[in-house]
From TrEMBL:
This is O-antigen ligase family protein. It comes from Paenibacillus antri. Its main location: membrane. The chain crosses the membrane at residues 12-31, 61-79, 85-105, 171-188, 194-224, 236-254, 331-349, 361-380. It is a multi-pass membrane protein. Keywords: Ligase, Membrane, Transmembrane, Transmembrane helix. Pfam families: Wzy_C. One of its GO terms (cellular component) is membrane. It is found in: Membrane. The lineage of its organism: Bacteria, Bacillati, Bacillota, Bacilli, Bacillales. GO terms for molecular function: ligase activity. Residues 196-339 form the O-antigen ligase-related domain.
Length: 402
């Protein structure tokens, strides 16, 4: 059924509400699982626009995504940890519903409208997160001792890390705004995006996440290589270097009053890698590899990591590496399917880049996300799937025009 102009405007408004809701994941309700705002908005979108949701032929990476999820879910048939298996399968079903419902609405959204949605939602998310972080800093009076969460502030081993309104993990917060950061970087003609770039950069800086810094830095290097001309490369270098210098200088100037010195904290974070083994990640990765060698073909089953680690290593926790987690939980077959899925994403980004240069931010975003997955267990996070949806819309639009 065709949408009239009024319905399209209404659909775009609810897409904007959905995108904004993604940045407020900490405000959820526990009903046997965490009911997040984006889930509620997705359900509302389904009810309001059910008749207008379109389903077109899937792209290559979407097929691999579905194949991988089906196979990954099938590893639950080993029944090693039934409750854990079912919990994760349920989470993946929610993600798939979110993906395909939103995909169906995006069919009616043009690229310019999508750009506005990305700009506005990201700006709202960054402003809200910085405000929530500031409230936390003021609440503790600049005393960052121990480990706790105060509003948008996570005190992690006496470090004042920003978690904002998105997640209780600063590393996951950066993962959420990676798409927005690189989108604004490549669309700086708009004053709204210039402000968004500044705020998202500040958010990333205040996360004090080593893995995020490395991923974003690598993404910036790639950005320089794919920038069309020398003027563009100089502009990117100037913006990033200038803003970093201003923020660090301001941080040093106000460090006495706020008790936050970004330069010292960043130095401390990287100097401590040798002592803390990447916050214990090296130990977790070693255990994941042992788990794989003991269960090489089919793994231990979807979401079996915590229970298996508790039984065999007396340690309850995730691997903090999505690739190793997939390897240990689904075996070599699932791991190869997951890698194929990622190769198809990057292949789609490269092909799109050849068709339209305005899509540069997408390939850089996925490269940065890929790197971040090496220090995060974040397989079913909604921010990754919203990036896939943006890729879908750009690819379908520009391939059609071609």
């Amino acid at each position: 059924m065709e949408l009239n102009q009024k319905k399209i405007i209404s659909s775009n408004f609810f897409l904007l509400m959905l995108m904004i809701s993604l940045y407020f994941g900490v405000f959820n309700f526990y009903v046997g699982f965490s009911l997040k705002p984006y889930m509620i908005i997705t359900a509302v979108n389904l009810l309001l626009f059910f008749r207008y949701i379109k389903f077109s032929n899937p792209l290559q990476y979407e097929l691999f995504m579905v194949f991988f999820i089906i196979y990954y879910s099938s590893t639950a048939l080993q029944f090693n940890y039934p409750e854990a298996h079912l919990r994760f399968i349920f989470a993946l079903i929610i993600i798939l519903c979110f993906y395909f419902i939103t995909r169906g609405l995006l069919e009616w959204c043009d690229i310019e409208s999508l750009k506005k949605i990305l700009s506005v939602s990201g700006l709202v998310g960054c402003l809200a997160s910085l405000t929530y972080y500031s409230i936390g800093v003021l609440s503790v009076g600049g005393s960052f001792i121990g480990n706790s969460i105060v509003y948008g502030l996570r005190i992690d081993r006496s470090l004042p890390r920003l978690i904002g309104t998105t997640s209780n993990d600063p590393n996951i917060f950066v993962y959420f705004i990676t798409l927005y950061f690189f989108y604004t970087l490549f669309n700086l003609k708009s004053k709204l995006n210039i402000l968004g770039f500044i705020l998202s950069s500040l958010c990333i800086l205040l996360s004090f996440s080593r893995g995020a810094y490395l991923a974003i830095l690598f993404g910036l290097v790639v950005s320089l290589f794919i920038s069309g001309n020398l003027k563009r490369k100089v502009k990117v270098l100037f913006l990033v270097s200038g803003f970093t210098a201003i923020v660090l200088g301001a941080g040093n100037y106000f460090s006495d009053g706020l008790n936050i010195n970004p330069v010292e904290i960043i130095q401390q974070r990287f100097n401590s890698i040798q002592d803390d083994g990447g916050s214990g990640r090296l130990y977790l990765w070693e255990n994941a590899l042992k788990t794989f060698w003991d269960n090489p073909l089919f793994g231990i089953g979807i979401n079996g990591t915590i229970e298996y680690s508790t039984e065999h290593y007396s340690h309850e926790g995730y691997v903090h590496n999505t690739f190793l987690e997939v390897l240990s939980e689904s075996g070599i077959i699932g791991f190869l399917l997951y890698l194929t899925f990622w190769v198809s994403i990057l292949h789609c980004c490269v092909r799109l880049l050849r068709i339209n240069s305005n899509s540069k931010f997408l390939i850089v975003t996925f490269i940065a996300m890929f790197i971040q997955l090496n220090s995060l267990s974040i397989l079913y996070n909604e921010s990754f799937y919203i990036a896939l949806l943006v890729l879908f819309k750009y690819y379908k639009t520009y391939l059609k025009h071609r």
